[in-house]
Amino acid sequence: MDSPESKVWNGLFWVIQLFVCINAVAKSFLQESRGRMLYFYSITSPANFVLAKLLFNSLLMLAMSLLSLLLFSLFLGNPMQKAGQFIGLVLLGGWSLSLVFTFLAAIAAKAQQNAAIMAVLGFPIIIPQLLLLMKLSNAAFAPLLTISITTVLLLIALDIMVILLAVILFPFLWKD
Amino acid sequence: MTEAKNYMYKSWWKITAVLLLIYTFTAGLLLKVPELAPLQETIRNLYFHVCMWFAMMILFTISVVNAVRYLRNLDIKYDIYARQFAIMGIVFGLLGYITGAIWASYTWADPNTPVGDSFSSIARDPKLIGAAIALLVYFAYLILRDSVQDMDKKARISSVYNIFAYTMLFPAIWILPRILPSLHPGNEGNPALDVKNDISGNMRMVFYPAVIGWTLLGVWITTLKIRISLLKEKKLTP
Question: Domain-by-domain residue ranges, chain A?
């Protein structure tokens, strides 16, 4: 089978990343038992708890991103022109996805819902970041285009904002 | 807040809304407008289409402010406010889409083919996607609300989502469309707020009153809905 052209490769890659993230991160809150939440409640503050969750999910998602990048280049060919920059973007994207979905998983878990509602809540919020990431990574496939630093900074600023919002808003979800 | 002091029950701003809208409809359709080749008389749609989006943003902002107030006071009243303002924002967003579609069918659509054929190329515009994201976020907000049974929990969770979603909306509708290429005007500067070189002074005379008028109309409808919800609430908990 021929390997797909770079645009298709790029699109497929980010869609797969999105679903990997939803399934990987959903586990973090939705699988906690009530007893264990009570235990966490007694030993730590909500801000520490949510920061720990964000950190763990970020690391998990970074590992998953690298894994799926490896599998993609094994099975679908390797159209990357600037491999180093693209790997950087993949890590940044994985991080952004994991942060947003960690917080949404917290909301979904509080609403006692399954992972489906997390996807419903998350899709509209994540689309802007995905559009930016796809635009950036298209540049990594074309030798003549350069990756715009301001867009990368914008993504990083968004990530920092998500962390701040999580720290501010999580205490309201936490108390029951 | 006692009834006498609450702005909801005053009538002066409702009269202002009606007067401003009458002015919008008469002056908007009669006053002279600049003649621009691709727009011609459709430029008058500015008083309706752009105002819908302004009103939507203002209503969503009021909604998120009430969500913050709910989290600070834990008074269920503010949650009702936030919900109703979000619903009215969605209504104005849909109206903005409809007026935009009418406008686009005269300006963007290829005149040599049926209007429907241009749909796929128009609908791909980043600004349209951004607006769709804004509406989807608030649809998700309503779904989330209805999926929780307990009143206080529902209010708290949906307020948290409201604040989170609103802040994530900024890139979707204010930053992102300026980075991606778009057919829609308003890529540089602050569209419609730039006093020097945006819309002509003549049109501004109608445009700003129109924005205020439409927004007040939205607030008016919302307050009526809020009053109904508050009465229902009172009946439930005597």
Answer: 6-174
